[in-house]
Design brief:
Number of strands: 22
CATH architecture of one domain: 3-Layer(bba) Sandwich
Strand content: 15-25%
Radius of gyration: 22 Å
CATH class of one domain: Alpha Beta
Structural class: alpha/beta
Oligomer: single chain
Number of helices: 10
Distance between the termini: 41 Å
Strand order of the largest sheet: 7-6-15-18-19-14-20
Length: 432
């Protein structure tokens, strides 16, 4: 149950807080929850009203599960979460290859599936329960900038309300309205993905205990038709439906010019009839979204504004995952802001603490994201993906290594030889 929403302030009567968080997606709500837990007064602003729809695959890897556990959220099946044991990969051969989630010290050995409509509300409710003040239906349109210091000191909503704080988190998604308002331009040398997805009634696939990935998409019979330039997924929702989607990625900042919905339909038309991926079984519309990757907007901190999640391009080039990185960045941002708060906002020491946030992001993911950019430059060509799956999938050891790399699931301190190799590659790669 959500706490009662705070009273809407009258126009011209600003709401004051220690921190303003714009956007109540996974990154924004997680940041608000962490900040409130550290004793800060937090205002969380969401343009929609819960529950609301978001374009997403609805699948959560063990990285995201770890962040939910840190927030104290019950991820049991009794609490409505669908658990899965690993990844099933199609490509390069008739039979799929099943890879269990790796057994690691740093991450739990299971993934989850949950519709974003309820997932985001759970996180927002967690933030509110911890003390954050949530304002729904508050569409933030612009930053409020102190002309003397050139720092953000608050935000303004479409209906004329103002919210003021010495620090603002932009978790407003790919639109990055606040970042743009602060002059933070998108980088043109970073990958950009596009995803489309739809829900289908499918009793045959809804209770799958694996997340399913299709590394080769054929527009007809496999091996006897044309390869489509993308990858697909099928995630059982456990309620009679499945989330089915298709993603593509381009090594440049502009998505490839193609009809994604047509490509999606061509792939679905060649799936087994018993799965029921037909227009008659579709639930709701086919929706699409852009996926900004590899820190495509920098710096992640500037003049009182911290970027979290899609607003800062915190999506993995390897697999298009963004939820886990948004939630991890939220925790890192909360650490930096809490440190700055207790050093004294406005002091040089507080500014030093805030500048530590982008440095930490790059230390954690910079090399890994750079490796992902190399990966994207290769697999955006369907024939390269075909060769990789044809010769790689039949080799179990290579596939286990590949899974750890693509899912970013390896121990950062100890682990086996695969973990050590991936750590070494990420360490020597220049930061993204």
């Amino acid at each position: 149950m959500s706490e009662p929403e705070p009273a809407i302030p009258a126009t011209g009567s600003p709401v004051e807080a220690d921190v303003i968080v714009v956007g109540a997606g996974p990154g924004g709500s997680a940041a608000a929850a962490h900040l409130a837990g550290r004793g800060l007064d937090v205002v969380l602003l969401e343009k929609s009203k819960f529950p609301r729809e978001k374009v997403c695959g609805d699948g959560l890897t063990p990285r995201a599960v770890k962040q939910l556990i840190k927030l104290g959220i019950d991820t049991s099946e009794e609490a409505g979460w669908v658990h899965n044991r690993g990844l099933r990969v199609y490509g390069g051969r008739t039979e799929p290859f099943e890879l269990p989630w790796p057994d690691l010290a740093e991450f739990p050995p299971y993934g989850l599936v949950r519709a974003r409509a309820t997932f985001d509300k759970i996180l927002a409710d967690r933030a509110v329960a911890g003390g954050a003040r949530l304002y729904e239906q508050t569409n933030v349109t612009a930053p409020i900038i102190n002309e003397r210091t050139d720092r953000i000191v608050g935000v303004q909503s479409k209906d004329g309300r103002t919210f003021r704080a010495p620090v603002v988190i932009a978790a407003d998604g790919n639109s990055a309205r606040l970042a743009l308002g602060m002059g933070l331009a998108k980088r043109t040398d970073r990958p950009m993905g596009v995803a489309v997805r739809a829900y289908f009634n499918s009793p045959a696939r809804t209770n799958d205990d694996h997340m399913e990935s299709w590394l080769e998409l054929w527009d007809g019979k496999p091996g006897e038709s044309s390869l489509l330039p993308g990858y697909g997924w099928i995630f059982g929702m456990g309620d009679g439906t499945v989330n089915v989607g298709l993603g593509t990625v381009s090594s440049s900042s502009e998505p490839a010019k193609m009809n994604y919905r047509e490509m999606f339909s061509r792939w679905l038309a060649n799936t087994p009839a018993e799965w029921g991926f037909t227009p008659e079984n579709q639930v709701g519309p086919t929706l699409g979204a852009a996926l900004p990757m590899s820190f495509n907007r920098q710096p992640a901190y500037a003049r009182g504004l911290l970027l979290v999640g899609d607003s800062g391009g915190m999506i993995s080039p390897f697999n298009g995952e963004g939820i886990s990185y948004a939630m991890e960045a939220a925790e890192m941002a909360a650490d930096a802001i809490a440190d700055a708060r207790f050093r004294g906002f406005g002091t040089p020491s507080a500014e030093t603490a805030l500048r530590g946030y982008p440095a930490r992001l790059k230390a954690e993911w910079g090399g890994y994201f750079r490796l992902g950019q190399v990966f994207v430059s290769l697999i955006e060509h369907p024939q390269v993906m075909h060769l990789c799956t044809r010769y790689g999938l039949p080799r179990p050891t290579l596939m286990r290594f590949t899974m750890k790399l693509l899912a970013h699931l390896y121990d950062t301190k100890d682990g086996d030889w695969m973990d050590k190799v991936i750590r070494g590659l990420a360490k020597v790669a220049p930061s993204a």
